[in-house]
Amino acid sequence: MRLKEFYQMEFQWLYAADSKCDYMREVMAPLTEWFSQGLCVPTRVVQSDRLPAYSERTWDIEAWNADKWMEVCSVSLRKDFPIQPKVKDRAIECRVLEIACGPDRMAYCKRRSLLAVPGLRPTMLLDVPVETLSQGAP
Question: Where would I find the Aminoacyl-transfer RNA synthetases class-II family profile domain in this sequence (predicted)?
């Protein structure tokens, strides 16, 4: 049972089942780098500790949140996707790579990490005394 609510953004990548390319392998390094640069925190790739029923393989991208590693993205090779596109009235067997990201988790990791390092901490409205905000106001 999962008790923590979160938001999820999913991307579905359809490709021909007879493709020679391992798209999962191809996307993992660029995705991990993108998360690391975008969140300004270390990231790592781990094999998922829970394999969803719809997945043949799942890898997670985790980001450091100044306290622990937190999953921010899962990449799964789905086995249950019902779409079979047709080309010239012939069904093409497809595979589906799913990239699922948690935008709220990304924001949480970035905020926690920035607040943990005083030199990186941005000046936030809550850090400024009320008197300072009212100075120079008409």
Answer: 1-122
DSSP string, 86-102: EETTEE--EEEEEEEE-
| Chain Cα centroid distance, residue 18 | 27
CA distance 115 to 83: 45
Q: What is the pLDDT of residues 73-116, one digit of tens each?
A: 999 999 887 777 788 888 888 889 999 998 888 888 888 777 76
According to DSSP, the residues that pair with 11 across neighbouring strands are: 99
Q: What is the DSSP letter of 6?
A: -
- Give the tokens for residue 104: 């709220």
Report the C-alpha dihedral over residues 64, 28, 54, 81, rounded to 10 degrees: 140
CA 28 – CA 90 distance, rounded (Å): 32
Which residue ranges form the domains of the chain, and what is each CATH number?
9-119 (3.30.930.10)
